[in-house]
Amino acid sequence: MKIHSLCPRCLEYRPLERHHMFPRRFFGNGHSNRSIIPLCHECHREIELIIPFEEELSKEEYLEIHKKFLAEGARELYTPFIPPENGRRKKGAKQHFHNQPRRNFSCQA
């Protein structure tokens, strides 16, 4: 079942899919594999490309991959504002808190 909410990686309002942190092909789908992250389709596809398909890793390694993946998305979204070299804005220029475009978080059905 897909739920519309904010994706924890890209912060876009989209239908979310369930991503098992520990691949079902190695850890199964039972009670021991309940660590699930809701991700949008694009972010889910990205993390699946990062995780090795045929090589089983330790649970600690999978946790580290997911921590880096989620932190990487946050870094892309919240880059700090870098002032001009002389420390002054151009006359009439608006100051932005960061150099990323503003995202539209309107609810879409």
What's the topology here?
Layout: E1 3-6, E2 13-20, H1 24-27, E3 36-40, H2 41-50, H3 59-77
Antiparallel strand pairs: 1-2, 2-3
Structural class: alpha+beta
- Low-pLDDT regions: 96-100
Order of helices and strands: EEHEHH
The oligomerization state is: single chain
The strand count comes to 3
Query: What spatial form do the alpha-carbon principal axes imply?
Result: globular
Mean pLDDT: 78
Biggest sheet descriptor? 3 strands, antiparallel
Which strand order does the major sheet show? Answer: 1-2-3
**Amount of helix:** 25-40%
Rg, please?
Answer: 19 Å
State the separation between the terminal residues, measured CA to CA: 16 Å
How much β-strand is present in the residues? 15-25%
| Structure annotation, total helices | 3
Q: In short, what is this structure?
A:
By secondary structure, the chain is an alpha+beta fold. The chain has helices at residues 24-27, 41-50, 59-77, and strands at 3-6, 13-20, 36-40.
Describe this entry's structure for a reader:
It is a single chain. With 109 residues, this protein is an alpha+beta fold. It has a domain at 3-77. The protein is 30% helix and 16% strand. It has 3 helices and 3 strands. The protein has helices spanning 24-27, 41-50, 59-77, and strands spanning 3-6, 13-20, 36-40. It has a 3-stranded antiparallel β-sheet with strand order 1-2-3. Strand 1 and strand 2 (13-20) form a beta hairpin. The longest helix is centred in the middle third of the chain and has 19 residues, at 59-77.
